[in-house]
Amino acid sequence: MSYSDLPNDLHPTDIAPGVQRLDGAEIAEGIRNYLIGLALATLLTIVSFYISGTTLVWGPSIPVALVVLAIAQMGIHLVFFLHITTGPDSVNNVMALAFGVLIVLLILGGSLWIMANMNYNLAPMNQMMQMQLEAGPGMRAVTARGVIAPTAPTPVGARVSGVIQALHCDANMQVKAGQVCAKIDPRPYQIVVDQRRADLAPAEARLEKDKGILAQAKAAFESHAAVAKRPAIFRKAIDKSRKAFERAQTQTKRDETRVAELQAALHAAETNLSYTDIVSPVDGTVVSRNLEMGQTVAVGSEAPPLFVIAADLTLTRIDAIISAKDSGEVKPGDKVTFTVEAFPNRTFSGAVTQIRPSRQIDEHASTTDVVISAPNPDRLLKPGMAATIRIVIE
Predict the structure, then answer these.
(1) Is 169 contained in some domain?
(2) Which range is least confidently modeled, 1-10, 143-152, 161-170, 300-309?
(3) Domain-located, residue 227
(4) Per the structure, how many domains does the chain have?
(5) Do 25 and 113 fall within a single domain?
């Protein structure tokens, strides 16, 4: 409806925003406002490009400056082009604009969330195509249940007995080789080290003293031996010096043996003291922790490992069990797809690597163990997860 079609008896408040009586001066003023807005918007655009491409502005402040210029650009558009002001006629325009922005943000955010969720849970396209090919005619599948395990687990046990004094590592923690994961109370072993050092110190001092006596006895014997061709009066002195030299040699060897034994005992005590630090032997991920603070650990082949560390979780293994009647058809190299409860909408793939007799005894049916290897680049598969497995058989 144009302005000429409006009744003349309408009150000014009954006219919708934008439908106003404009004369030539107001039209000229409106055009001038548009031109000013265009000039300011162009200027802000040029300044934005200049700031982003220059080195005169401090680097970390460039994003802040661009955000400020973008907000100013929005303000110019709202004021000079959309005529959004604080006047009463702009209320409807402001509400309509805000509602439109809200709808756009909701649609954009919902679309991004849906696409991200589908990308996270669905299998990759090449894996889906491979599953479709495997489901072709002449093929069937064997289903099984299995448990995910690390491909190369490294058990870490205690080398000395004692009480756990500190814990520094837990399951699913990334560790480095040599990192201390737990600490056994070192005080009993420190006492032994101090005792061994106390025993060694006087023995070393005695050895040094006997070496001095040996050097003197050797010098005296060599001096008397030099005059051995002289009269018999010197023979008694030579025999005496020789016996003293031999006694000094015997005592020195005895002291050297004693010092070597004490040094070995000290080294063993220091080694046991160092074993109170339970360290990771490899870089990897802690798969399991089997000890608590204050627990007493013992050394022995029958003792369970304190930690199990996997060196590489990007490749995982699945231990599965199938019936004996299906084991004749399953062979190494067969393709496998499986799911885990943590990611029910995502399908993982792998391949059969080993088939061996089952170590479990089932009274009702004989079974076979199957080992499956599967890539795990995202480290989503954790040891201990239960897997539902589908082995494709041609």
Answers:
(1) no
(2) 1-10
(3) yes
(4) 3
(5) yes
Residues above pLDDT 90, as percent of the chain: 20
Q: What tokens appear for 293 in the block?
A: 């603070």
Supply the pTM of this predicted model.
0.49
Helix then strand count (H, E) for the chain reads: 7, 14
Residues 9 and 114 reside in one and the same domain: yes
Q: How many CB atoms lie within 10 A of CB 309?
A: 26
- 7 and 89 within one domain: yes
* Residue pLDDT, tens place only, 329-379: 888 888 999 999 888 888 899 999 888 877 655 555 577 888 989 988 888
CATH number for the domain spanning 369: value is: 2.40.30.170
Residue whose C-alpha is closest to residue 16's, from 91, 89, 79: 89
- Separation CA 37–CA 42 (nearest Å): 8
Is 267 a member of any domain?
Answer: yes
* Residue 248 exposed, middle or buried by CB count within 10 Å (0-12, 13-18, 19+): buried
Q: Do 294 and 164 touch, CB atoms closer than 8 A? A: yes
pLDDT digits (tens, 9 = 90+) for 39-57: 888 888 888 888 877 776 7
CA distances (Å), origin 114, targets 106, 117, 270, 341: 12, 5, 61, 21
CA 222 vs CA 5, 71, 219, 231, 250: distances in Å: 142, 103, 5, 17, 18
> The domain containing residue 248 runs over which residues?
186-275
Q: Of 73-82, 109-118, 187-196, 200-209, which gets the smallest average pLDDT?
A: 109-118
The dihedral region occupied by 138, where left means phi > 0, alpha psi between -120 and 50, and beta the remainder, is left
Distances (CA, A) of 274 to 191, 215, 269, 296, 331: 13, 39, 9, 17, 48
Do residues 113 and 66 share a domain? yes
Per-residue model confidence as pLDDT tens digits over 197-210: 999 999 889 888 88
By C-alpha distance, which of 373, 351, 192, 171 is closest to 265? Answer: 192
How large is the average pLDDT for residues 241-263? 87
User: Which residues lie below 8 Å from residue 230, measured CB to CB, with a gap of 6+?
Assistant: none
Measured from the Cβ of residue 195, the count of other Cβ atoms closer than 10 Å reads 13
Identify the CA nearest to 275 among candidates 158, 192, 193, 187: 158
Sheet holding 174-175, edge to edge: 153-156, 307-310, 284-289, 174-175
Give the pLDDT score at 268.
92
3-class DSSP assignment, residue 321:
strand
141 in the same domain as 83:
no
Do 43 and 101 reside in the same domain of the chain?
A: yes
